[in-house]
Structures are given as structure tokens and as C-alpha cells.
Recover the amino acids of this structure.
């Protein structure tokens, strides 16, 4: 058996998350269904990263094992056919043969997310960003984003009932930028906790509007109390941008 990584992108609006689940449709369920139709057999998919209901991804991965797929020219035809079966909001970008021991989840060294906020009403970004029509001080947002680099314990930004052994995350980058009508937050880390990016964004927005000070923002991180963070920002502004590995794909 050979092992393959399959890279996908999707608009998560219609799905109850990335990973397959009972009594709700997911991105994984749609991809598994398309693969079963094309290959006429059930193929087990292992996902690299979960995303919540309504969250999007420009790049996410599965791995699967198969007896052996064709060379690249024919592989491109398989990708074309899978995309013909899949709904319009999911696309297979690549299928790549990897080492038989490669693992899409455990071999990831970092993941990068982006959260989009818009402040002037715009129907063309409403399903891909959060409408927040309040005065924001970008320097305060940027200062709060910089503060995040000083910490490793993000207990305050993990939703309750999360079964993890540690709340420690190594932040690789954290910063805001302004692009046209969007305030965009980018964060990369070796791992993320459940709800962490949305909790960070919601709490930073409070700093950006002056509802809390930067010192109070630090206090929320140091409290290790998730009731003090703001997880209220909606899912449609969140994108998984990239999953990076210790080997070349």
C-alpha cells in the first residue's frame, strides 16, 4: 500500500465542520462520498486539522492509503473527476504520494489562520468576514497581537470541555494588517486549542475599541480563565490558510 496526501480547500458555510460526524454534514463526509463514487470502494481518510462549523480553509489535508494511483498525468484526471463530483464549495487541489509513515496530523509542524473583519457594509464579503462597524485603533490591535508572542499558556483561549494534555502553544507569528476594507489578523503556531483563534480575535477587538486596556488583555491571558475571554466572533471570518510539515509536499 502507498500513502497519499490530498490537499483540499473549502467554503465552510454549509458544513458542520471539517471532520466527519454523526447527524450532520461535514467536508470530510462530502470528500469521502466523492472518493467512494469514483474509486467504487470505501477509503479511510485521516484529517490534518479540524475546523468548526462555518469555518473556511484555503489549504487543509487528509492522508489515505491505496494500492497505487497512476502517474501524475492520470492523477490530474482523477483530481478533475473528483472535483466534478464534489459540490462547488469544496475543491481537491492536489494528491501527492508521500512516505508510507507520513501522517497528515502528527507530522504538521505549524498551522496558520487568518481572521477577516470588515467595518463598512459590504455584501461581497459578508459570508467571509465579520462585520464590526465600531471604531478600531489598529495600533492597539497590533500591540495586543504582539503581546501574544510573550506567552505560551493559552488556557484562557480554550473553550471548556477540551480534552488536551497541555494548553501550551508556541506562537510563530501574530499580527494585524489593513487590506482595503478588511482588518486581517494572521496567526501561526505549532498547535491551536479549541476556539483559540476566535477567542484571541474577540478579546483583541475589545482592546482595539478601548473596552479593555493592553494591561487588562495581558491579565486575561495570565488569568488562565476562559470566562474572561470573548469567543463571540462568528465563524465566517476564520480561514485555515496553511498546514506546514517537516517534509516537502
Amino acid at each position: 500500500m502507498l500513502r497519499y496526501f490530498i490537499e483540499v480547500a473549502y467554503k465552510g458555510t454549509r458544513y458542520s465542520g471539517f471532520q466527519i460526524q454523526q447527524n450532520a454534514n461535514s467536508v470530510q463526509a462530502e470528500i469521502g462520498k466523492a472518493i467512494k463514487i469514483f474509486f467504487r470502494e470505501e477509503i479511510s481518510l485521516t484529517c490534518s486539522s479540524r475546523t468548526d462549523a462555518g469555518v473556511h480553509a484555503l489549504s487543509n489535508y487528509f492522508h489515505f492509503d491505496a494500492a497505487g494511483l497512476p502517474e501524475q498525468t492520470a492523477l490530474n484526471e482523477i483530481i478533475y473527476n473528483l472535483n466534478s463530483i464534489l459540490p462547488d464549495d469544496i475543491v481537491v487541489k492536489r494528491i501527492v504520494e508521500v512516505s508510507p509513515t507520513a501522517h497528515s496530523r502528527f507530522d504538521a509542524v505549524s498551522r496558520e489562520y487568518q481572521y477577516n473583519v470588515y467595518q463598512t457594509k459590504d455584501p461581497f464579503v459578508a459570508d467571509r468576514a465579520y462585520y464590526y462597524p465600531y471604531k478600531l485603533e489598529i495600533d492597539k490591535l497590533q500591540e495586543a497581537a504582539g503581546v501574544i508572542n510573550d506567552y505560551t499558556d493559552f488556557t484562557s483561549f480554550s473553550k471548556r470541555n477540551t480534552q488536551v494534555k497541555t494548553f501550551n502553544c508556541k506562537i510563530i507569528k501574530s499580527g494585524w494588517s489593513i487590506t482595503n476594507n478588511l482588518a486581517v489578523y494572521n496567526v501561526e503556531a505549532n498547535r491551536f486549542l479549541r476556539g483559540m483563534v476566535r477567542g484571541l480575535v474577540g478579546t483583541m477587538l475589545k482592546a482595539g475599541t478601548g473596552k479593555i486596556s493592553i494591561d487588562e488583555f495581558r491579565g486575561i491571558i495570565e488569568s488562565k480563565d476562559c470566562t474572561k475571554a470573548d469567543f463571540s466572533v462568528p465563524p465566517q471570518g476564520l480561514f485555515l490558510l496553511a498546514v506546514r510539515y517537516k517534509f516537502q509536499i
Observations:
- The chain has two domains: 2-106, 110-244.
- The first helix runs from residue 27 to 39.
- The helical segments are 27-39, 72-85, 138-148, 196-208, 214-223.
